[in-house]
Amino acid sequence: MTAAQVAKLQVADGVRALIDWAASDSARRIPAVALRKSVLVIADNLAAAIAARDEPEVARVHAQLIADGARAEATVFRGGRPRTDRHSAALANGIAGSWCELDEGYRLAPCHAGLYTLPVLLAEAETRDLRVAEVLTNAALAYEVTARFARCWIFPSLGLHPHPQTAAIGGAIASALARKYDARRMLDAVTAASTLIGVGDYQHCVDGAFVRNVWAAVGAVNGMRAADWAACGIGGHAGSPYAMFTERLGQAPEPAALTRSLGAEWAITHGYHKLHACCQSTHSAVEAMLLARAALPAGTAARDIRRIVLETHRPGMSNSRPQTTLAGRFSFEHVLATAQVHGHAHTDAFAAASLADPDIARLRERVEMRRFEPALPRPNDRPARVTVELEDGSTVTRECLSAAGGPDRPFDDEVILGKVEAIAHAPYPMLISSVRALLRLEPAQLERRWRAFIGDFALEAA
Known about the structure:
Elements: H1 3-22, H2 32-51, H3 56-68, E1 74-75, E2 83-84, H4 86-99, E3 105-106, H5 113-128, H6 132-152, H7 162-178, H8 183-194, H9 203-207, H10 212-230, H11 240-248, E4 271-272, H12 283-295, E5 305-312, H13 325-329, H14 332-342, H15 352-356, H16 358-364, E6 367-371, E7 384-390, E8 395-400, H17 413-424, H18 431-439, H19 443-446, H20 450-457
Parallel strand pairs: 5-6
Antiparallel strand pairs: 1-2, 3-4, 5-7, 7-8
C-alpha cells in the first residue's frame, strides 16, 4: 500500500471518528470555560455583523434578501427584528459578519470557524426554538469540527482563501447539530459539504473585490443545504474530504489533527478576538504603528513623516492605492497610514472617506516594506517592526511580535464586552445585558429558549 493510500484511509477513519464523536452524548460534556467562550464568540460575531449594517452594499443585500425571502423564521441582525427564511438570514448575517473584519478567528490554522458556523446555527436555533444550552453546546462542537478540518489541511501559501475552503464544512456541521442528526446523517451532510467548497483567490482581498465578502456566507449556506439534502438521503462519503482537499487541491493532510485530544482540548478556546477592523495579519503592524505614534514628538503630523518602514511576515500584502474599503483593510500601507492619522484602527478608520484622505494617501506612498527576519514560530509568526522617519532625520522604531487578542495575549472579557456594547448599543441597547447574564451560565438562563433570548434585545419594529 502506498503512502497516499495509507493517508487516504487514515483521513477517512478520522472523519468517521470525528463525526461519531460529535454526534455522541459524550461530546456534550463541555467544560464551562468552553461554554463561556461560546457566549463571547457568539456576542463578538453578532457585533461584527451589526457593525456592517450601514455599509451601503450590506444594506442593499439585506434589503434584497429580506424582500425575496420566504417564511419569517430567523432574524437578520441589523436593528429591530427583521426576519426571513433561515437560509436567507444565514446568508445575510454571514455577509455582514465578514464585512468589517471584526469577526473572531482561529489561531492554529487559517480559519474563521465562528463565521462559518454561527450564521447557520443561530438561524437554525431560532427556527427550531432550541434551548440556550443547546445553542452554546452546538457552537462549541461546530467550531471544534470545523477547526479540525482546517488543521488537517493547512495550505501554507495562502494563495487560496480559507473562507470558501472551509465554510461549507462549518455550515453543514452547525445545521446537522441543530437538527440533532445521528452520526450517519451527520456524516452524509459534512462529507457532501466538502464537495461544495470553493477556491477563492486570496489576492481578491488585497485587490478589494467585494465578492470576497460573500464567500464565507455562501459556503456556510451551501453546508446548510447539504444538511437539508442529507435528510433526503443525499450525502457524500468518508473519502470525500480527502478527494477534494488532497487529490484535487493538492494539499497533503495531517490525519491526526482530526482526532488528536478529542474532547480533552477545545478549539474554541484557541480563537482570537479583534479590536482593529482589518485583516488579523496586519494587527501586529497596527500595534507597532500606534506604539511608534505615541513615541513621536507631540504635534507630529502626516506632513512631518518622511517614510515608514515596515518589517513584516507578509510584505507581499501590498496595495498603496486601495480603491475599496476591503482593499484598505488588507493593505499594509493603508492600515499603517490610517492608524497614524486616526490614532486607532476601528471601523471608522476604514470608512470609504479614508481612501481619499490626502494625509492618508500621502503616507501610503511613503511606506516601504521588508520581510521580518528571522521568521519566528507561533505565536510570534505574524510579527511587525515599524520605523517612522521624520523629515528632520530622526527615527522611532517599535515592534509587536504577536498582536493582542489571541490565546497568548488574550483580551480580558471586559474588553470584548466593551467592543460589543460600543458597536451594538445604538441598534440593540439591551444586547450587552443579555450577554452578561448568559456568561454566568446559570441553569435558568441555559434552559430558556433561544427565541426568548433574542426577544430580550431584538425588539419588533413599531
